[in-house]
Specification:
The protein is of the alpha+beta class. Strands 1-2-3-4-6-5 form a 6-stranded antiparallel beta sheet, covered by helices on one side. A hairpin with an 8-residue loop joins strand 1 and strand 2. Helix 3 packs parallel to helix 5. The radius of gyration is 25 Å and the shape is globular.
Length: about 260
């Protein structure tokens, strides 16, 4: 009588090393290209520079995990969902009509943090001009606003912040940086700001900016936390400065900001 169990045992004993070896080889073949792709992507992310998360592999993995819940269409006002708009969100704090931004929108890095602009960056001169304009806003309104290192950018960028003595928690702010309303990204000229819902809609529609990938999704960032594109000329520096004042007025609950 044929011993089936014995035959199977003999076959397994004879060929099992080859099966294991083949599986290990297959795993190695799959690991090498995947590891290479991760390394290349990590280098591209690292090249963006420091931001609000650790500038190392831990930060890279953190932003990768957060990317799964990121806003899919940051340039669509349909993504700008506000379940409970306050009276302040129904107001505009802009100084008149916002014109259409000329030309096409810049290319934005696909990583959620740091959130960076890749093309059409400001020149060094334009970035200095914008930085000076933002600092002037703080100087002209020093009873309400100050310049501080941006908490959201890990202290690497200047930010307009509401003075602690006048800050109230009566409307939407970022828990991690409750008094910060606007900051510039050093080295490129783009910026982030918190705006009223009405102004956020206008900014996106007119082509001046877009939602952060995590706006309304994580880290306490409100839906109206927007990126403003880097100014390409002196006229756009004035426009972005005007938007910075609008963010400050919203943060100050409608107080005048000159």
């Amino acid at each position: 009588m044929f011993d089936v169990a014995g035959a199977v045992s003999s076959y397994v004993s004879r060929y099992r090393p080859y099966v294991v070896q083949n599986r290990l080889s297959l795993a190695a073949l799959l690991f090498v290209p995947i590891a290479h792709e991760v390394y290349v992507d990590y280098c591209a992310w690292y090249a963006l520079g420091p931001g609000g998360i650790p500038h190392n592999f831990v930060g890279y993995v953190t932003q990768w995990l957060l990317s799964w819940i990121a806003v899919k269409k940051p340039r669509s006002i349909a993504s700008l969902y506000f379940p409970n708009r306050t009276d302040l969100d129904k107001q505009s704090f802009l100084e008149g009509d916002l014109p259409e931004r000329e030309g096409t929108r810049p290319k934005i890095a696909t990583y959620v943090a740091p959130h960076r602009q890749l093309t059409d960056k400001s020149t060094v001169e334009l970035e200095k001009s914008l930085d000076g304009a933002v600092r002037k806003i703080a100087a002209d309104n020093n009873s309400n606003i100050e310049i501080k290192p941006s908490v959201l950018e890990g202290g690497n960028s200047p930010a307009l912040s509401i003075l602690e003595s006048v800050y109230t928690e009566s409307h939407l702010h970022i828990p991690r940086a409750p008094r910060e309303v606007f900051h510039i990204h050093a080295g490129e000229g783009s910026a982030h700001g918190v705006f009223s819902w009405t102004d956020a809609v206008m900014i996106i529609e007119k082509g001046w900016g877009e939602m952060h990938g995590l706006s309304g999704q994580a880290l306490g960032l409100p839906h109206s936390y927007l990126m403003l594109y880097a100014p390409r000329n002196a006229a756009e520096v004035k426009m972005v400065s005007m938007l910075a004042r609008a963010a400050a007025r919203y943060g100050l609950e409608g107080k005048n900001v000159s």
